[in-house]
Every structure is written in structure tokens, then in C-alpha cells.
Records
---
Amino acid sequence: MPYQPWTQGYSPYATPAPVSGVAIASLVLGLLCCLPGVGLVLGVIALVQIRRTGKRGTAMAVTGTVLSSLGLAVWLLMLASGGLSAFWGGFEEGLNDDGTSLSVAKGECFDTPDGSLEGDTYDVDKVPCAQKHDAEVFAVFKLTGFGSDYPGDRAVTSVADDKCYAKRDGYAMDTWAVPADVDVYYLTPSPDSWDAGDREVTCVFGSTTEGKSLTGTLRNDETVLDDDQLAYLKAAGVLNAALDSAPEDAYVEDDLPGNKAWAKRVADAIGTQRTMLGGHEWPTAAKKPVATIVTNLSAAQKEWAAAARASDADAFYVHFDKGARLIDGRKTVTVRKALGLATTPPAGDADGGDGGTGDGGGSGGGDTGLDV
């Protein structure tokens, strides 16, 4: 019998069918839950493709389809309940949490990680103002007028310093109620956070005594004051602002024109304060002490106006001394007591606030010694 030809028989090492790439993609997306809708669609496509071509990956396609279905259900639930917005907001905050300003608002209090309000910080712990805290926020504002490039530490801190001190009295209107060791601090953008779009400055009160905490809020503005207290403090603030605008030179002799212009501002402010006090209907206990203040203000305005017309430094000093004594802040203690305001003049002010000059009437101009 002739030999039979060799034929190719079954080989146990035959090449297996390829795995569906679509099934792999469906499984990956199902595990990550980042695009559950896409993972679900890919899973269905993979199952149809496997049935038609004989490729492997059925288990992966089924698993990806199930996981994507669960992920899609979770996303729809979060969207319906508003949780998705909160999640995305937290995600964006996490991306931007690289030296940007802290998420604290006006009126809130917080502790810093090391208890210091100096140097760099990236996080704070909000705490109730009623308990001990490192700082209290009294203003938050955006820096404007700068380009996209960081303008430098000096330019940023200069604006922050000016605006924070200017906003201080609007939050703590009764300056007598602010402890002597409390001062203004501020958090500004860093070069890195500036590049990320940060332009926010946070102004806070903090203790100048190392390691000392604050307790209780320092806020006393229209949100907590009654109408009579607010009227008095607004009137006092007009004069204090004028007194605080004194020339930088310590002596009148060094800048007589500047001091005369300052005396004119004070005289005008006294007139405004007198009108504000006289035009308000005060409670019975405060009527007489307010009337006394108004009388002193009338006499003081004449002296400051005369100082503004002085021909030389000696004449300026004569009227300045008389005018300063007439607006001595200690003369306001009685009316403050009647209105329920702080009655202890700020420490370090020889003549108190609310118009007290604090320099003993000897220097003229320069530092008025006000703690406004």
C-alpha cells in the first residue's frame, strides 16, 4: 500500500485568540470611575465584538460594564443632590491650595499651625472667637492695579499696610476697647500664589506679645452697636482721622506750612463732629455730657483755626496747646460711660483718644499719640 502523505495535525501550542482592547478599556474606566458613561458604552461594544470575532475578554468587558454602571449611578445621585458641585469645588481648591490666600472671612477667628502671625503659612484652623485664638479677620480685599507679573514684596506689603490700617477702624470703631498689645497683621500673596491668580489680602488682629492668644471678638461696628453708640463713635472718628493726618516732621519749625494745613483739617473736623453730636437725639443720661463736649468743641475749633493762621511756630504752639487741652480724650469718659462704651483711654496715650493729642501739647504736629 502506498504511504499516506503527512497532514498537519492538532498542535497543543496553537496561538490563542487575541484579547479585545475595547474590553480592557472598559475595565480600566470602570475601576477608575472617572468616565463611567464611556466605560459602560465600551463594555457593551466589547461584548458585541467578542461574540462576533471570537476574541477573548468577556470577563473584563462584563466587569467594566458593571463597575461603570455603578459609577454612573453614583454620579447621577451626586448631581441630583448637589454633591457633585461640592466635590468639584473641593477638587479645585485642592489644586489651588499652593500658597494662595486662606479661606477665612471677615469676622472669623483662627489658629495658625505654629501660633505665629509672621513668616509663611499655608493653612489655619478656624475656631470660635469666643475661645482662645491667634487672630481675628477684620477685612479681606483684592489687590488691583498690578499686572500679571508679581510686583514684589515691597509693593504688595505697602498696599496691604495702608489698606488694612484704613479698614481697621471700620471693624473696631471703639478704639478704646482694643487691647494695647493688639496690632494689625496681614497675609499677602506669595510669588507662587500670585502666578496662580491669587490677589487676596487678609487683614487680621493679633497680639504683639509672643505666644499670647486673643479671647473674644474685637468687633464693634454697626452689626453690634446701638444707634447712640454708633452716632458717637462716627463723630469721634471724624476728629481722630484728622488728628492722625499730622505731618511726618516731629516739630512745627521743620514744616510750618504742613502743620498749618493740618490744623485747618482739625478745625474743619471739629466743626463736623460738633454738628454730628448736636444733631443727634441722645438718651437722658448722655444729654448733659454731650452738651459739655459740644461746648468744648466750639472753643477748640477757634483755637485750631487760629493755629492754621499762625504767622510763626511760636504763635502756632500757643493756639495748638489750648486747642489740644480742649479736646483731651479724658473729657469724654462721662459720655462714654453713659453710652456703655469703653471708659479706659488706650494705654500709651497721654491724653487718651477721641481727640486727645497724647503728646502733652509740646511737640506740635508729628505723632499725635492717637490710638485710632
---
Amino acid sequence: MVLTLQIVLFLSCLGMTMFVLLHKGKGGGLSSLFGGGVQSNLSGSTVVEKNLDRVTIICAIIWIVCIVGLNLIHAYVG
């Protein structure tokens, strides 16, 4: 059980990292401070972005459930 949760935690961690990096940047950051953030985003959020948001949220929920599960197993069994 513990090994399974650890494997799922590792895979969800990798997936969440990948999905977060696939997101399009929304803020200007330091580039807007020096005039690099002059781009205008005329297109709204697309279906792909909405689906990417959903997958990222699902992956984050799986990650949190694995962490809580491992902590509960460690507290009550170990």
C-alpha cells in the first residue's frame, strides 16, 4: 500500500510539473518592467487551455490525496 502511494505520488508530481510548465504565462513578470510585456492577448482561453487547467487540478488533487494518505499510514501504522 505504501509503495503504491509513493509511486502514484511520484508520477503525479512529475505530471503536475509538466502540466504547470505547459501553461501559457499570464503575468508580465520582470519582462513587463522593462517594456517587454507589450503583447496583447486578443484570443480568450481556448478549449486546450481549459482542459489543461482541469488536468492540472485533477493531478494536484491526486498529489494531495497521496500525501495525506501516506501521512495517515505513517501516523497510525508506523
---
Amino acid sequence: MVKRYNSEKIKQLVFKIYQAYGFSNEDSEKVAATLLYTDLHGIESHGVQRLAMYDHFIQNGKIRVQSKPEIIKETDVSAVVDAHFGLGQLNGIYSMEVAIQKAKEHGVGIVTTKNSGHYGIAGFYANLAATAGLIGMSSTNSRPAMVPTHAMKAFIGTNPIGFAMPAKPHPFIFDAATSTVPQGKIEVYRKLEKDLPAFWVAKNGTEPVTSHTDKKDLDLLRDPDANVALTPLGGVAEETGSHKGFGLGIIVEIFTSILSLGNISTEISPENLEVGPCQSFVAIDPAIFGDKEQIIERFSAYLQDIRHLPAVPGKTIYVHGDKEALAYENAKKYGIEIDDRTLEEITAIAKRLHVSTSEYLN
């Protein structure tokens, strides 16, 4: 069952939990804000649903509470950051802030970060740049999850791409895995006991896995040596565009692990505590191309033209960021959605850390 909870109370609970781990007040606030941003915008796969995974990594030492990101190579417009296995959200905020500062000073800022951790949604970091009046992009690699076109097992991560640009009435925000869906979406469907649409998951390269009760196959999604994997955006065949998602996943790998000389997807595993995902952060000042306000006004008018196109009967045309803006208004008014199993996970973590939940979950 899914219920709604007051977002400010849940944010405060997450803050208390991260305080209890030993994170500073400032860092705990950043983590809570990042996770609640995700739930408030209707992306429940990467919000507080992820607390259990982060808890596991903190306990086994893959996430190191006291680690701080460090610039190890730098130019006026670029930097390489070693995150030293700190929490992904904190590494991501730090790295995008470096990119934003460089873009404000030199027009462009590009940062690639290695030895990081799972950082949530790519769009959050892209939107940090948009909020600063800049164009933002972010991406991350991950452990193998996606099967390349015509292959039999996973080799590439879900490797999402986030892009954001200032616009009216709200920023344009595109955020998507290069696989058909992210791993977190599968986890949410399994918690809700919902069957999967065809070709979110494939077995032996071409056979769809759809039943949420097929525990044996779905459990193998986390095994890089298994024959079960997420499909690339476009499915399993070139005729439906599988090669496009596959190619986009490789491009993400270039901007994250290859340029940082960090770990590629196949080198990342939850068991190996000395390897972590890599990320990229880009900020671009539109002013290097012309009058910034005119560019934003032109882009905003372009998006409005799309929204006003004739729509299929019974459907609404949304551009990227519209649904998230609506979800945000709804969640602020009625609360964020949390399923019972995720709530049980959060409650168990809080109990172990001696954090009271009674005042936050009513």
C-alpha cells in the first residue's frame, strides 16, 4: 500500500538519520534536500526509497562518512574530482558547484568525478545549474545493468543523462536512463507487486521478463554474469532503436569513467569497496552565445509552441519538466508517496540509529 506523508517531516527525519550516521549538520541537510527533491517531483525510485541501499553501503564501508571530495586536476574550464568514496549526493553537489563557478567565470565548466557513490537522479544536479541561470548537464555510470544490442548479458550501467535549461514558467529538465528504465523502477514495481511491461528486462538477450513473481530471474538483475539484464532504450532489436540507447550509454561512459580515468561499469560492484561509480557535471552560460534573457525567452516560446500543438484526443502534451512541476505542487499540498515496504525499511534504519520516528510519520 502507498500512503502520503508530509514532505517537511520526512525531510527532517532523513536529516536526523544522516546526523546519526555521523554526517555534519550541513551535509545531512544537503542529503535530505536532495532525496526529498526527488520524491517531491514524483520520481519515487530515487528518493527515500534509496535509504536502504545507502544504509547498506554506509555499514559495509563502501560509503565513507568522513570522506571529502578533492580536485586532483584542474584548468580554468575543467576539473577532475576524486570523491574518496563519500556519499554520492555530497560529491555531486560539490562537483556541480565547481562547474557552475567555472561557467560563471569562463563561460563553461566541465567536471568529471571518480570514486563516488550512487548520487540519485542526474536531473537534480543539472537543475542546480539551471537555478543559477545556466545550462546544466550531468551523468553517471553504474555497475553493469544494461545488455548491449545483440549481447547475452549486461555490460553497461543504466548510465542516465540529466539536462536542464532555464525557461518560463519553470526550467526544462530532461532526466532519463539510457536503459529503457532505471533499476530503481524495477525495485518499485516489485515492492508494489506489479508486473513489468514487456522488454524492460530481457533474458538471453531477447526474451522478455515481465512477471513480478519471477523472483529467480529478477534477482539476477544484480548479477553481471547472469543472462538477465535491463534493455537499452529502444528494446532488444535495432529495428526498434536498441542501438541508440546502447550508444548513449557508451557516451555517458566516456564523460564519466574514461575522462576521469576512473572505473568503467564492469569494474564496479557492491562487494568491492575500492571501486565506485564516476560522474560528470557540465555548466554552460548561455551568455557566451548572445543575450541570455533573449535566449531564455526564445526557448520558453519554443516550448509553449510545443505545448499548444494539437493533441491526441484525451491526451495532454507535456514538455520535460512539466510533469515534475505538477507533481511538486501536488506533493507539497498532499504529501509525498511512500509505499509500506519502504516505510518499514526507513523505520528499521531509524530504530537501529536510535532516531525516533513518531513525530515524523503521522
---
Amino acid sequence: MTLALQIILVLSSILLTVFVLLHKGKGGGLSSLFGGGVQSNLSGSTVVEKNLDRYTVLTALIWIVCIIALNLIQVFTF
């Protein structure tokens, strides 16, 4: 079970990183430093952004649950 949770944790970490990097910059900060401040009509619709937000939150919840479960398994096995 620990191995399965570790695999899920690694996969969710990679997915979470990808989903966060896919978000459109809101202006200012590091996103505008690397060219994210340029407005484009090809950036996508609001439906895509809402779905990306949902996927990001779901992946973050899976990541958090895996971390808590792995910590609980570690506490109760020692």
C-alpha cells in the first residue's frame, strides 16, 4: 500500500506542476518577466480555465491525501 501511495504521490506532483504552469498569468510577477504579460487571443476560453482550475484543485487534494496517508502509515508502523 505504501508503494502505491508513493507512486500516486509522484504522479500527482508531476501533474500538479504541469497544471500550475498551464495557468494563464494574471499580470505582474514572474509570468510577465518571461513574456506572460503579452495579451493574446489564442490563450483559450474561460471554460478551459475553469476546467483547468478544477483539475488543479482535484490533483492538489489527491496530493494532500497521499501525504497525510503516508504520514499516518509511517506513524502507526513504528
